[in-house]
Backbone:
């Protein structure tokens, strides 16, 4: 299935969870914020929520600084 992750089209397995997606892209699930279709996803949803065909996903990794 094709989705858009951070403005880039990507092929992902059908039925993958948010956690599987985040890990497959090299991110640590507890250290990112995920938005799907304009809605922020809670970390407790990462194991059950599955992106759908064509959806836009934003993965944001906070950076500390001053």
Residues:
């Amino acid at each position: 299935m094709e989705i858009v992750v951070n403005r880039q089209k990507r092929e992902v397995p059908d039925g993958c969870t948010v956690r599987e997606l985040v890990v497959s892209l090299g991110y640590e699930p507890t250290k990112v914020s995920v938005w799907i279709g304009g809605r922020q996803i809670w970390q407790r949803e990462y194991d059950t929520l599955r992106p759908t065909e064509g959806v836009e996903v934003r993965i944001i990794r906070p950076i500390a600084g001053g």
Summary: Residues 36 and 42 are 11 Å apart (CA to CA).
